[in-house]
Amino acid sequence: MALRSLVARKTISSAFKASTGLRLGQLRGLQTFSLPDLPYDYGALEPVISGEIMQLHHQKHHQSYVTNFNAALEQLNDAMEKGDPVAVVKLQSAIKFNGGGHVNHSIFWKNLAPVREGGGEPPHSSLGWAIDTDFGSLEKLIQKINAEGAALQGSGWVWLALDKELKKLVVETTANQDPLVTKGPSLIPLLGIDVWEHAYYLQYKNVRPDYLKNIWKVMNWKYASEVYAKECPSS
Amino acid sequence: MSWCCTYNPLPLYSRLQVTDFSCSWQLKNAQKMLLSLGKKPEKKKQFYRFQTPSKVVAYYRLKTPPYKLDALEPYMSKRTLEMHWEEHHRAYVEGLNKQLANDDILYGYTMDELVKVTYNNGNPLPEFNNAAQVWNHDFFWESMQPGGGEMPELGVLQQIEKDFGSYTNFKEKFTESAFTVFGSGWIWLVLKREERQLAIIKTSNAITPLVWDDIPIICLDMWEHAYYLDYKNDREKYVNTFMNHLISWNVAMERMARAEAFVNLGEPKIPIA
């Protein structure tokens, strides 16, 4: 029974690692998550996103999601060991919020790339064709994402997702830090844009549409194409 | 509402200019008329000399905070107030007016009524977000004062001690709840009508306890734009600063006094003749 659970944990951890590249540590047998490094410098995305924002966003916001996620998971572990169902259920919102924040931001850092590393280069091959099929053109897709992102009330994310079941690309929004799967279990995130105010306020103030217009200059379509090609290898 | 059938032959562009609460005689007259009918002049209608019939239009104005924009330094910077009031709050007001220009049914309400009507019992109409945010921000500016903070006094303190045990307990609970607002939202001290007690309520995005018919006493904006320029991600510092230096217990006292007209909080003290 212990062996089975150990194997199950290992497969979960490797599946996690493969899909999202999250780094796991091991502490007293309990998995803890850690802040992934950025694949570029804080100032590498200037002038689209300032170095100050990137540093705060990564070192403070994302770090606090990771820390609180680990804390919530530890509490969950305790509650499960004690057999306390009320506590287990009570922790769900903290886990969804902080865990979602960690998952979403880990994807976000990979979605961005400095211009010299290919940021802003439009997608080619299978993803490019899929975009043309499902949205008409890349410009139309960008317009749609920007419109939905600007219209989102409060805090949230706007996603370009692949619906694995329907084999279609869709644009979705999620509120707060809800991960994309809350909008549909078969949705795979390709690109996500953080429209929480902390993602742009210091630079763009309240002009969210400008932030959305500019972020495409550092969008890492290569990563999105890789994920798409992996999930839809036939096309 | 029907008495205010108005004549509005002003062309569109000048209508927009007039909204900016200039001291023209038309607006003064409008104010007098509204006051005489016992209505608060929170909405302005235009009356004109010529008798050309036209459609009814309602405009809500951007209320100025009861202090200068730099009066809350160093706890809330002038830059924040300029952004928050002049950009965000104004955008909500203008958005609301634009939406209302298309919709006759929602004319003639006071802000409170508009918020409740557009909430539509949990299925908010598109105007709700703007209306509620305008109301919330008006309430927020008035909930603060330069030289605020410290302790409440008299009736408010008594009620807090009755419902929370002690002021320290209340302060702890308030700050704790503020930290656990996930995403954008507000944190309120309200007087609940049914329970006849003070309570701390978190709401998300634009929701206000007004829609549940509770009486708000104090609120704090937990949207990131409210504190990001001054405190970046340090929400704790922001909330503690609000509690220690900005919160206006005077206004809370006024609001409680008014609330007591609607909620029976205890035995009245009948003086013995």
From TrEMBL, chain A:
The keyword Aminoacyl-tRNA synthetase does not apply. Destroys radicals which are normally produced within the cells and which are toxic to biological systems. Keywords: Metal-binding, Mitochondrion, Oxidoreductase. Belongs to the iron/manganese superoxide dismutase family. Residues 32-113 form the Manganese/iron superoxide dismutase N-terminal domain. It is an enzyme of class 1 (oxidoreductase). The keyword Oxidoreductase applies. Residues 125-226 form the Manganese/iron superoxide dismutase C-terminal domain. It catalyses: 2 superoxide + 2 H(+) = H2O2 + O2. Signal peptide: none annotated. Its EC number is 1.15.1.1. This is Superoxide dismutase. It comes from Hevea brasiliensis (Para rubber tree). It holds the Pfam family Sod_Fe_N. It is found in: Mitochondrion. InterPro entries: Fe/Mn_Superoxide_Dismutase (IPR050265), Mn/Fe_SOD (IPR001189), Mn/Fe_SOD_BS (IPR019833), Mn/Fe_SOD_C (IPR019832), Mn/Fe_SOD_N (IPR019831), Mn/Fe_SOD_N_sf (IPR036324), SOD_C_sf (IPR036314).
Automatic annotation (TrEMBL), chain B:
Its EC number is 1.15.1.1. Residues 156-254 form the Manganese/iron superoxide dismutase C-terminal domain. Residues 60-144 form the Manganese/iron superoxide dismutase N-terminal domain. Pfam families: Sod_Fe_C, Sod_Fe_N. InterPro entries: Mn/Fe_SOD, Mn/Fe_SOD_BS, Mn/Fe_SOD_C, Mn/Fe_SOD_N, Mn/Fe_SOD_N_sf, SOD_C_sf. Keywords: Metal-binding, Oxidoreductase. SUPFAM superfamilies: Fe,Mn superoxide dismutase (SOD), C-terminal domain (SSF54719), Fe,Mn superoxide dismutase (SOD), N-terminal domain (SSF46609). PROSITE patterns: SOD_MN. The keyword Metal-binding applies. It comes from the Eukaryota. Its cofactor is Fe cation. Gene3D superfamilies: Fe,Mn superoxide dismutase (SOD) domain, Iron/manganese superoxide dismutase, C-terminal domain. Belongs to the iron/manganese superoxide dismutase family. PANTHER family: SUPEROXIDE DISMUTASE, SUPEROXIDE DISMUTASE [FE] 3, CHLOROPLASTIC. This is superoxide dismutase. It comes from Hevea brasiliensis.
